[in-house]
Amino acid sequence: MNDNVLYTRVYEVHKEDFAAAGEASARVKRKLKQIGIDAAIIRKIAIASYEAEINMIIHSYGGTMTINIGESSIVIICADTGPGIPDVELAMKEGYSTAPQNIREMGFGAGMGLSNINRNSDNMSITSSPEGTTIRMEFET
Ligand SMILES: Nc1ncnc2c1ncn2[C@@H]1O[C@H](COP(=O)(O)OP(=O)(O)O)[C@@H](O)[C@H]1O
Ligand SMILES: [Mg+2]
Known about the structure:
Number of helices: 5
Distance between the termini: 12 Å
Helix content: 25-40%
CATH class: Alpha Beta
CATH superfamily: Histidine kinase-like ATPase, C-terminal domain
Oligomer: single chain
Bound molecules: adenosine-5'-diphosphate, magnesium ion
Strand order of the largest sheet: 1-2-3-5-4
CATH architecture: 2-Layer Sandwich
Shape: globular
């Protein structure tokens, strides 16, 4: 991205905090509506950021979601503190999930999150190690 950041905001996302699941992505969505971003783009950002938020709640030790609004793009960065994704290529596959049974009973763990992020963003990158996973997604506006 080579875009001036006009607005930035960081939201905390906590491990296993299902009560607050979707709050960070809902706040992002509200902000985008407020500044008049195109509804179709908001929808894509809402889907992708929700999936990344839920992944941090379910699969990680917790982390942050940062939104950077630029003149011609919106970048969302989800960064957690571990335990990392051992095989990112495998994790990206539709239907692949390590979610345990109790999580599946809550309606999560279909294994579609990462592929949904990929499909809905104009650019996506994942870096991961045992110290943490960072997912960066970019949307042209
Ligand atoms: N932030 C993360 N930290 C650790 N592992 C993750 C993270 N996000 C995704 N994963 C791994 O990638 C898999 C696939 O993710 P996803 O496509 O969202 O499916 P689901 O969340 O339904 O399992 C997860 O089951 C998990 O093993
Ligand atoms: Mg998921």
